[in-house]
Design goal:
Blueprint lengths: L8 E5 L5 E7 L3 E7 L8 E4 L8 H18 L3 H14 L4 H13 L3 H14 L4 H13 L3 H14 L4 H13 L3 H14 L4 H6 L6
Helix pairs in contact: 1-2, 2-3, 3-4, 4-5, 5-6, 6-7, 7-8
């Protein structure tokens, strides 16, 4: 499961059940890829509507980000990485480029590099929920439940209606012994996204 920075629109099931692409709109059109985090179940492919473009270096960075998304979708990771590295040379404050570099590293299981890139994105925007969410995934992989819980809480604070963050936070809380709060978080996730009901029931979470 995953997140975004503006309005989102679910479109189709991702071929890779662990991944989902996003296009995020800021002052310029930018592109973000997000790694799904699901302890139990699959993930969706989500898109958002881009805003208006810009000119000059920002427009060039926008074009490179869009190109990188196409390359990532086609599995052309070396080309995508090269384009994203060009983006950050054009715009050193582009959190989306750092995020996508983190995504590529995470997909390639280069977790230390992924964490570094996500933290660069967060240095620009400390409340950037996709990076918080994916850092939580890295903490889960590292068997750091406390770290993952903290990051999921931060992601929810940044985006309260993030069903996936609520759901996975709830599972972690249950797994670490805080069953009542864990149930509350999973129930919140189901309220936001009813399609999670069966996954919640499969974990034995009581639902009304």
């Amino acid at each position: 499961m995953e997140t975004t920075a503006t309005s989102r629109r679910t479109t189709r099931r991702s071929r890779n059940r662990n991944l989902r692409p996003l296009i995020i709109a800021a002052v310029v059109v930018v592109v973000v890829i997000i790694l799904a985090i699901v302890f139990f179940g699959g993930s969706d492919s989500d898109n958002t509507t881009p805003a208006s473009g810009a000119t000059g270096a920002a427009n060039s960075a926008d074009a490179l980000l869009t190109k990188a998304l196409t390359e990532i979708s086609s599995g052309k990771m070396p080309q995508a990485k090269a384009d994203l590295e060009r983006v950050v040379k054009l715009d050193a404050q582009n959190k989306y480029a750092y995020f996508n570099l983190g995504y590529i590293a995470q997909k390639q299981k280069k977790n230390a590099e992924a964490e570094r890139q996500y933290k660069l994105a967060l240095a620009i925007d400390a409340r950037y929920d996709p990076a918080l969410y994916n850092l939580g995934r890295l903490r889960v992989d590292a068997n750091d439940a406390a770290g993952a819980i903290s990051l999921y809480r931060q992601a929810i604070a940044a985006k309260p209606n993030d069903a996936k963050a609520h759901f996975n936070l709830g599972l972690l809380l249950r797994q670490t012994g805080n069953v009542p709060e864990g149930n509350t978080e999973v129930q919140a996730a189901v309220k936001i996204t009813p399609s999670l009901r069966s996954a919640a029931q499969g974990q034995g979470v009581p639902l009304s």
